[in-house]
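FAQ: What does the model actually see?

It sees only this:
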Amino acid sequence: MVEVIPRIDPGFVAARLTEARERIAAACARVGRDPDGVEILVATKYLAADQVPLLADAGVTIAGENRAQALLEKVAVPGADRLRWEFIGQLQSRKVAEILPHVRRIHSVCSDSVLKRLERHRELARPDLDVLIQVNVSGEHAKDGVDPNVLGDVIARCPVRVAGLMTMPPFAEDPEQSRRWFARLQALADQHGLPELSMGTTQDYVVAVEEGATVVRLGSGLLRAE
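And it is asked to produce this:
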Protein backbone atom coordinates (compact mmCIF):
# COMPACT_ATOMS: atom_id res chain seq x y z
CA MET A 1 0.00 0.00 0.00
CA VAL A 2 1.42 3.39 -1.00
CA GLU A 3 1.71 5.81 1.92
CA VAL A 4 0.37 9.10 0.62
CA ILE A 5 2.02 12.36 1.60
CA PRO A 6 -1.02 14.47 2.55
CA ARG A 7 0.73 17.84 2.79
CA ILE A 8 4.03 19.34 1.67
CA ASP A 9 5.85 22.52 2.63
CA PRO A 10 7.00 24.37 -0.51
CA GLY A 11 9.85 25.94 1.44
CA PHE A 12 11.15 22.54 2.51
CA VAL A 13 10.85 21.18 -1.02
CA ALA A 14 12.64 24.23 -2.43
CA ALA A 15 15.51 23.74 0.02
CA ARG A 16 15.82 20.05 -0.87
CA LEU A 17 15.71 20.96 -4.56
CA THR A 18 18.56 23.42 -4.03
CA GLU A 19 20.60 20.74 -2.24
CA ALA A 20 20.01 18.30 -5.10
CA ARG A 21 21.07 20.89 -7.68
CA GLU A 22 24.23 21.59 -5.69
CA ARG A 23 25.09 17.88 -5.63
CA ILE A 24 24.41 17.65 -9.36
CA ALA A 25 26.62 20.67 -10.02
CA ALA A 26 29.44 19.10 -7.99
CA ALA A 27 29.08 15.80 -9.87
CA CYS A 28 29.15 17.64 -13.20
CA ALA A 29 32.28 19.54 -12.17
CA ARG A 30 34.05 16.26 -11.40
CA VAL A 31 33.47 14.94 -14.92
CA GLY A 32 33.53 18.17 -16.92
CA ARG A 33 29.82 18.48 -17.65
CA ASP A 34 27.51 21.50 -17.72
CA PRO A 35 24.97 21.15 -14.86
CA ASP A 36 22.39 22.90 -17.05
CA GLY A 37 22.32 19.64 -19.03
CA VAL A 38 20.71 17.76 -16.14
CA GLU A 39 17.00 18.05 -15.32
CA ILE A 40 15.35 17.05 -12.06
CA LEU A 41 12.06 15.21 -12.42
CA VAL A 42 10.02 14.97 -9.22
CA ALA A 43 8.04 11.74 -8.90
CA THR A 44 4.52 12.35 -7.59
CA LYS A 45 3.65 8.74 -6.80
CA TYR A 46 3.39 9.41 -3.07
CA LEU A 47 1.85 12.87 -3.27
CA ALA A 48 -1.80 13.72 -2.65
CA ALA A 49 -3.34 15.25 -5.77
CA ASP A 50 -4.35 18.54 -4.13
CA GLN A 51 -0.71 19.20 -3.21
CA VAL A 52 0.51 19.12 -6.82
CA PRO A 53 0.32 22.91 -7.43
CA LEU A 54 2.63 23.46 -4.43
CA LEU A 55 5.41 21.72 -6.36
CA ALA A 56 5.44 24.61 -8.82
CA ASP A 57 5.53 27.05 -5.89
CA ALA A 58 8.68 25.25 -4.72
CA GLY A 59 10.41 25.65 -8.07
CA VAL A 60 9.71 22.20 -9.51
CA THR A 61 9.25 22.27 -13.28
CA ILE A 62 8.91 18.59 -14.25
CA ALA A 63 6.58 16.10 -12.55
CA GLY A 64 6.51 12.38 -13.27
CA GLU A 65 3.73 9.95 -12.41
CA ASN A 66 3.92 6.15 -12.28
CA ARG A 67 0.25 5.26 -12.66
CA ALA A 68 -2.12 6.27 -15.44
CA GLN A 69 -5.14 6.81 -13.20
CA ALA A 70 -3.15 8.95 -10.77
CA LEU A 71 -1.78 10.99 -13.67
CA LEU A 72 -5.29 11.77 -14.91
CA GLU A 73 -6.36 12.79 -11.42
CA LYS A 74 -3.35 15.04 -10.83
CA VAL A 75 -3.24 16.85 -14.16
CA ALA A 76 -6.88 17.83 -13.61
CA VAL A 77 -6.08 19.75 -10.42
CA PRO A 78 -6.19 23.55 -10.93
CA GLY A 79 -2.63 24.78 -11.19
CA ALA A 80 -1.18 21.43 -12.29
CA ASP A 81 -0.61 22.88 -15.76
CA ARG A 82 2.28 24.90 -14.29
CA LEU A 83 4.24 21.66 -14.38
CA ARG A 84 5.51 19.63 -17.34
CA TRP A 85 4.09 16.15 -16.93
CA GLU A 86 5.88 12.96 -17.91
CA PHE A 87 4.97 9.30 -17.45
CA ILE A 88 7.64 7.24 -15.69
CA GLY A 89 5.97 3.99 -14.61
CA GLN A 90 5.25 0.65 -16.23
CA LEU A 91 2.89 1.50 -19.07
CA GLN A 92 0.02 -0.84 -19.87
CA SER A 93 -0.86 -0.73 -23.55
CA ARG A 94 -4.56 -0.22 -22.78
CA LYS A 95 -3.68 3.02 -20.94
CA VAL A 96 -1.68 4.61 -23.75
CA ALA A 97 -4.62 6.51 -25.26
CA GLU A 98 -5.58 7.90 -21.83
CA ILE A 99 -2.22 9.43 -21.01
CA LEU A 100 -1.12 10.68 -24.46
CA PRO A 101 -2.93 14.06 -24.34
CA HIS A 102 -1.32 14.95 -21.01
CA VAL A 103 2.38 14.07 -21.16
CA ARG A 104 5.42 15.59 -22.81
CA ARG A 105 7.45 12.40 -22.49
CA ILE A 106 7.02 8.69 -21.75
CA HIS A 107 10.07 7.18 -20.04
CA SER A 108 9.12 3.52 -20.15
CA VAL A 109 8.43 2.32 -23.70
CA CYS A 110 9.59 -1.29 -23.95
CA SER A 111 6.90 -3.55 -25.43
CA ASP A 112 5.47 -4.28 -28.87
CA SER A 113 1.95 -3.71 -27.56
CA VAL A 114 2.80 -0.17 -26.45
CA LEU A 115 4.47 0.56 -29.80
CA LYS A 116 1.29 -0.54 -31.58
CA ARG A 117 -0.91 1.62 -29.37
CA LEU A 118 1.35 4.63 -29.90
CA GLU A 119 0.88 4.17 -33.64
CA ARG A 120 -2.86 3.69 -33.35
CA HIS A 121 -3.45 6.70 -31.10
CA ARG A 122 -0.70 9.10 -32.17
CA GLU A 123 -3.30 11.74 -33.12
CA LEU A 124 -4.08 12.07 -29.40
CA ALA A 125 -0.50 12.95 -28.53
CA ARG A 126 0.88 16.42 -27.93
CA PRO A 127 2.89 17.60 -30.94
CA ASP A 128 6.04 17.79 -28.82
CA LEU A 129 5.76 14.26 -27.40
CA ASP A 130 8.88 12.13 -27.34
CA VAL A 131 9.67 8.82 -25.69
CA LEU A 132 12.54 7.05 -23.99
CA ILE A 133 13.12 3.35 -24.57
CA GLN A 134 13.50 1.43 -21.31
CA VAL A 135 16.48 -0.91 -21.52
CA ASN A 136 17.17 -3.88 -19.26
CA VAL A 137 20.92 -3.35 -19.10
CA SER A 138 21.42 -5.76 -16.18
CA GLY A 139 19.55 -8.68 -17.75
CA GLU A 140 17.35 -9.25 -14.69
CA HIS A 141 14.50 -11.59 -15.56
CA ALA A 142 12.00 -9.69 -13.42
CA LYS A 143 12.98 -6.28 -14.77
CA ASP A 144 11.09 -4.45 -17.52
CA GLY A 145 13.03 -3.22 -20.51
CA VAL A 146 14.20 -4.30 -23.92
CA ASP A 147 17.28 -6.42 -24.47
CA PRO A 148 20.20 -4.21 -25.59
CA ASN A 149 20.70 -6.55 -28.56
CA VAL A 150 17.31 -5.62 -30.05
CA LEU A 151 17.37 -1.93 -29.12
CA GLY A 152 18.07 -0.77 -32.66
CA ASP A 153 15.03 -2.62 -33.98
CA VAL A 154 12.77 -1.16 -31.28
CA ILE A 155 13.99 2.37 -32.01
CA ALA A 156 13.38 1.86 -35.73
CA ARG A 157 9.82 0.65 -35.15
CA CYS A 158 8.80 3.34 -32.67
CA PRO A 159 6.17 5.63 -34.28
CA VAL A 160 7.04 8.53 -31.96
CA ARG A 161 10.37 10.35 -31.80
CA VAL A 162 12.82 8.51 -29.58
CA ALA A 163 14.81 11.07 -27.57
CA GLY A 164 16.85 8.66 -25.49
CA LEU A 165 16.98 5.74 -23.09
CA MET A 166 15.94 4.91 -19.54
CA THR A 167 16.97 2.19 -17.13
CA MET A 168 16.37 0.99 -13.59
CA PRO A 169 19.45 -0.88 -12.34
CA PRO A 170 19.26 -3.61 -9.68
CA PHE A 171 18.66 -2.14 -6.24
CA ALA A 172 21.88 -1.67 -4.31
CA GLU A 173 22.67 0.01 -0.99
CA ASP A 174 25.98 1.24 -2.43
CA PRO A 175 25.41 3.66 -5.34
CA GLU A 176 28.76 2.62 -6.82
CA GLN A 177 27.24 -0.75 -7.66
CA SER A 178 24.94 1.03 -10.14
CA ARG A 179 27.78 2.77 -11.96
CA ARG A 180 28.47 -0.01 -14.47
CA TRP A 181 24.79 -0.14 -15.50
CA PHE A 182 24.63 3.62 -15.98
CA ALA A 183 27.83 3.51 -18.02
CA ARG A 184 26.34 0.73 -20.14
CA LEU A 185 23.25 2.83 -20.88
CA GLN A 186 25.43 5.80 -21.85
CA ALA A 187 27.37 3.57 -24.24
CA LEU A 188 24.13 2.37 -25.83
CA ALA A 189 22.88 5.94 -26.20
CA ASP A 190 26.13 6.92 -27.89
CA GLN A 191 25.90 3.90 -30.18
CA HIS A 192 22.42 4.89 -31.33
CA GLY A 193 22.96 8.65 -31.40
CA LEU A 194 20.48 9.46 -28.64
CA PRO A 195 20.99 12.52 -26.40
CA GLU A 196 18.70 11.86 -23.42
CA LEU A 197 19.39 9.49 -20.50
CA SER A 198 16.84 9.06 -17.72
CA MET A 199 18.67 7.22 -14.95
CA GLY A 200 19.32 7.67 -11.26
CA THR A 201 16.93 8.00 -8.33
CA THR A 202 17.33 9.35 -4.82
CA GLN A 203 19.96 6.87 -3.68
CA ASP A 204 22.19 6.88 -6.76
CA TYR A 205 21.52 9.99 -8.85
CA VAL A 206 24.95 11.51 -8.20
CA VAL A 207 26.65 8.47 -9.74
CA ALA A 208 24.14 8.58 -12.61
CA VAL A 209 25.05 12.20 -13.35
CA GLU A 210 28.73 11.31 -13.37
CA GLU A 211 27.92 8.65 -15.97
CA GLY A 212 25.88 10.95 -18.22
CA ALA A 213 22.30 11.21 -16.92
CA THR A 214 20.34 14.10 -18.41
CA VAL A 215 17.26 13.41 -16.24
CA VAL A 216 17.26 12.18 -12.63
CA ARG A 217 14.09 11.02 -10.92
CA LEU A 218 13.72 12.14 -7.30
CA GLY A 219 10.80 11.15 -5.09
CA SER A 220 9.61 11.20 -1.50
CA GLY A 221 13.01 12.24 -0.11
CA LEU A 222 12.55 15.58 -1.84
CA LEU A 223 9.01 16.03 -0.55
CA ARG A 224 9.36 15.19 3.12
CA ALA A 225 11.96 14.50 5.80
CA GLU A 226 12.66 10.77 5.93
